[in-house]
Amino acid sequence: MTGLDIFKLLPKTNCKKCGQATCLAFAMALANAKADVGQCPDMSDAAREALEAASAPQIALVKIGVGPNETQAGNETVLFRHDKCFVNPTSLAVSISDRSENPAGEALKANGLVFDRLGQMHGISLLAVQNHSGDPDVFSETVKAVTGKTSFPLILISGDPPAVEKALEIAGAKKPLVYAATEENYTVMTELARKYNVPLAVKGRDLDHLAGLAEKVSALGHKQLVLDSGARNVRQVLADQTQIRRQALRRFRPFGFPTIAFAVNSQDPLQAIIEAGVYIAKYAGIVVLPSADPEVVLPLITLRLNIFTDPQKPAAVDSRIYEIGSPGNSAPVLITSNFSLTYFCVASDVEASRVPAYVLPVDTDGVSVLTGWAAGKFTPEKITAMLKESGIEDKVTHRRVIIPGGVAVLSGKLQDLSGWEVIVGPVESSGIPAFLKRHWINPNIANTAPAKRMKIDQ
Ligand code: SF4
Fold it and tell me: Where do the domains of the chain lie?
């Protein structure tokens, strides 16, 4: 909708309750996604409904699981990342068969699939329990064994409604994804999904059939859907995923849901990686993998990071105290920015020095020290707040802080504001090992700048 289209739906009283000077200004802000429909309290219900429908993402958001392990798919608005950004990274699911001799062991193995990258933890998001046995009791026992060993949300894969029902009696409260409603079972499956308020995958025979089936399930009142075109060879899955995304962005409602794809056709790990890689790139919301092998999962996580990282948002670490080694109360305190690359350079150089230390990355919105300083994000005020609020004053008995050499200009004001003695460190983080070894010898020795003598705390 254009700003003028939106304006026509507003009360036009210019009452300013929305925080804008006029209704027209509010309409323009809404059109540019800089305001929220709810900010105008006097809008009619019909206008609100029309505007909310127009501003809703073309692909619905579907949530699987509860609590901290909840995983989300959908909410995407573009075909290409450079048009804006992708929102929810493809969720990786590991398949566990109910014919497995040790499903609990496989769940435990999946728990270990967590990788640290630039300070953020990445891994799989779901476990897909498959009803290969065809036996509802075996399936529900497997679901029970898996849920006892992991907190990952589940995908319950069975075409048999009684088996799904038994599994939902065990795991329904954890909001699993039920896979799948088909032409043969969709009324019962939809009823079950509605009863337990869980998302439901819809599996078509081809795209036309999928569109019809998704409409039928929606008409039964269930809107938490995940789509599967039914294709299983890579070429056709790729074509279907692309077509579903294209049509969804054109607001073809039956395709306005995230998709699921299966890379379980081959036992060859390399083939599984290739297939899953294609589906991550184009445009699966969930990809089911054949196994929990790190050599399969790790390259896919790396690929996913490359595709779903928002290039407009620099990678940042949390702004908090990081302990390198086992620092004591006389260990050095180093300030840096929370740009991931900066932080990890500093952290690894501190580690290389073998001088246990505290590193405090100030929140600069993920930009480097010098950029942050130039942009007013790396200031004496922010560093002082970090020193006062992070808890570092309880961890060290001295009051000496080392700042990057590139921002030596901050030292005077920082010292005045914080009450800490400010020591100017090296300009490059590569100079940190030599700097700490040479200068952090005894904190009680008077500061004789530039070579301040401090104790090595180890
Ligand atoms: S609150 Fe609504 S009616 Fe009032 S100025 Fe804003 S848009 Fe117009």
Answer: 3-55, 62-308, 322-439
